Every structure is written in structure tokens, then in C-alpha cells.
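Risk register update: the risk of archive-format incompatibility is retired. Evidence:
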Amino acid sequence: MHPDHDLDQTPADRSLPAEPSDPQRGVSARSPMRAVLPFVWLLSVLLAFGAGLIVERALLDRPSGVGPVAAVPTPMPTPAPTGTSTPAGLTTPAGTATPAGTPGTSSSATPAASDPSAEPTAPSSPTPRPTPAGPPASAPPDAPPDFAVFWEAFRVVQDRYVDRAALDAPNLTHGAIRGMVDALNDTGHSLFLTPEDLRVEQQSLQGVIIGIGVVLDATSAVPTLTTVISGGPADRAGIRPGDQLVKVDDREVAGLPANEIVKLVRGPEGSTVRVTVIHRGQTAQVELTIVRERITVPAVTSAVVPGTDILHLRVVQFSSGAAEQLHRQLQAGIDAGARRVILDVRNDPGGFVNEAIAIASEFLREGDVYLRQDAQGNRTPQPVVAGGLAHDLPVVVLVDKGTASSAEIVAGAIQDAERGPVIGVTTFGTGTLLNVFELSDGSAVRLGIEQWLTPDGREIWRKGIAPDEVIELPADAVPLEPDELEGQTVQQLLTGKDSQFARALRILGAT
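Archived output:
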């Protein structure tokens, strides 16, 4: 989970697919070990000197990572939580977010995607370690020839580093694993998860967070809150979409990675956090004290555009149950007279791949939603499923740089089927199917094991979905949410700052 990060949850980027044997998820949490043979030798050696100790690192809610919470997640067995503090968090689409979001989520984010409401868990007490005696451990027989260099570096650190208290085995082990996965350059998608990271990611994909209820745009030069959960703590405190986040407690957040901001914002349920914001269109800083709460984040929101028969369907994230929520709201809109649809997946870090298939199938009568491609180049089509409600309704899809992972799958499927134009800017570009491989200390490695393509075979990974019509939002604009439409006229919407939404209205014939 990277594009946007759900400060209260992570992308959500946020994606953990299931293997073909699990038709409900599209990926499995327990993949055959042969899928990770290239990593087994390194992980086993790294864990050899880190056995028995655990270090926790609290992450934001959303799909993990710097990018969108961009990944197609699948549920994983929840490991026994470690540490003493109760994690909580913000939401970041991630996706992102990370999923992280993602892009990611994917996410990557996930978008997404991270909620900066999580409080770091208590680290294990660092204790100085004596310089090891004797020759260094030997590398596994199947290790690459240059793997001995790692042991050389490890020995130098153990023998020479001046801060002996910092030679904490779990820190070194987790840091080495994290560096190895980061070297794959699958930012915001493939990543190392501490036990706490893993638990938070699982929570976010179920749509439940502990935090203040905001979504952070991690791609912005200035941390900006793109979404505020209606009725949540931040909403009640007066925070609005487009507000800039300046400080969390006494820490300035400009320039910090999204996951660091999330760690500052999140915390235990019932605890307080001070956030300093600049309201959109103003210059004065405002400090607010907010109590963190457990929040259920809706996966889909919607509203009929006043004075029209156009339904604005906003998919916040592809978390568990997203397709069912969209189906119900689509039916309600049709019952209320809606005959045209704006499908808005902006700042969406992604989520579960099965939710993407079901949501795309609401608009596609036949064909494929996407193609799965393995390391050998074999492609497996993922077909449309029956039961969609909007096969004949005109549709426009809105995307942006925070659109990641499963959200990109849906946008690409509708675009390839020529069901409707895609409007906005090129998406984040997460395009690998993820599996989570849990390690013996409760941490995990999330790896992209397959690549997904659009039905026409176009690559999404690192390229994104290019819109049919490029429309940039003004620098001071944020995407409209469905609950902001009430009381506005069509003319106001057509001349408002959300130029992408205005263009969609014009394409669908609103005047």
C-alpha cells in the first residue's frame, strides 16, 4: 500500500493473492515452498543468528509501503501478536496502502493503502553482544558464490561497530531480510513484514482500523489528507479533505516517509493524538487533539449526482466485501433512477483480487478481467463472472496516480473492453500477484510470484494504466467524495475544482 496511505489502516497497496487452488482468493497464503526456493537459503542463514528474539515495528494501517498499497492481498493466518502495546492506525490508500498503498495496493497501496495512528510497540531491550569467537558460520552449499561477502560484512559489524548495544540480533536479521527484499525493486508490493506489520495489514484488509479516520496522499510533496471518513474522529474534529498535515504531536512530518507518519498517528484505542493541520485554502496552522477510535471503513460509497440520473460510485479500497457493497449500492442507485455511472477508483490502493473480478464483472458481460502470467510466461485468463447489474449502463472510470493494484485491474479491464473511457492521469503501476510466506518468528516475506496483465496483454507493473483522456487536477484540488455532492448543482460541479469529475459529467451528458 505509494500513492495514498490510509492513516488508519494499511492498502492499501495495499495484496495477498491465493493460489489457483483457492478460487475465492486467487492466491494462497501457504504457497509451495518451491515458490520461494531462491530465498530459502538466505532466510535460513539470516534467521540462524536471530533466533529467539523479536523486534516489532508498528506500521500505518494501510497497505504497507512507500507506494500505494498496491497489491492484491489474500487473507493470511493471524500470527500471535507480540509486544505490549495495542496497535492502531491511520488509513492510507497503500497500496500500499501500504498496501501500500501500494501501489500497490497494490500498495500496493495499499492503494493503496496508511493510517498514521499506530503507536510503535515496545522494542526488545537491546543488550551488548560480545564479539563472536571462532570462524564465521559457513554459507549454505547452494548459496551464490559471492554470499560469503555477507558474512564478511556481518563479521565486521559484530567486531568493529562502536555502539555495542545496537548489535541486537533481531534488528540485524530483520534489517538484512528487508534489504534483500527491497533490492528486488518491487516498491510498495514485495516487502518484509514484522509480526506487527503483518497483523496490521490483515486488519486493514478487513476494513477495520484504529485511528482517526483519514487517508494520506503519500505522493504529494506536502502531506495532504485526501479522504476523511464520514463520522470518524477526524471528521468530528473538523478535518476536511485537502487539509495539509503539518505535525503529529510535536513532530513535523514534511519529508517523512508515509509509513513513518502512520506510526506517529496511530496508537491504542482511546488514546489521544495532537495533529496540526492547515485547512484547505487557508494559511494558519490549527492544532487539534483527537481520540483514536476503532473505525469500520466502508469499501464503497455512492450518491446520485443532484439533478441527474448519474450515480457516483466511489471504491475506497478492494477490502473484503467490497464487491457486495458495490452491488447493493449499484442496485439502490438503479432503483432510484440512475442510468449512468461514474466509477471512481482514485486514491484506491487496491486489495483482494477476487473483489476486483466481481466489481469489474458488474460492468462487463463477457471476456476476461485480467491475465495471470507466471515466471515462465504462461498466461491464465481470469474470466468475468455472471450477475452484473450495469452491463448496459454508460460508464466513465476516474483514475489518478494513487490508483493501484486491484483498482488498476478494473480500470484496465473496462478500458480493454471499450466499455467506457478512463479519465485522469496514469495510475501507480502495481502488477504482481502476491503470496505471503510466514517465517518462524511470526514475521513474513510478501513476494510477487506472478504478474498480471490487462485482457489485451498490456503490462501494468511499473507502467500503470494510461487514461484515454489525460485530465490533471489543479494543485489545490482533491477528488470529490459522494457525500460532498449533496446541495450542489450540476453547474457548480461542472465548474468546480475537481476537473476530472467535471469531465466525466460532460462525457455522460450532464449540462
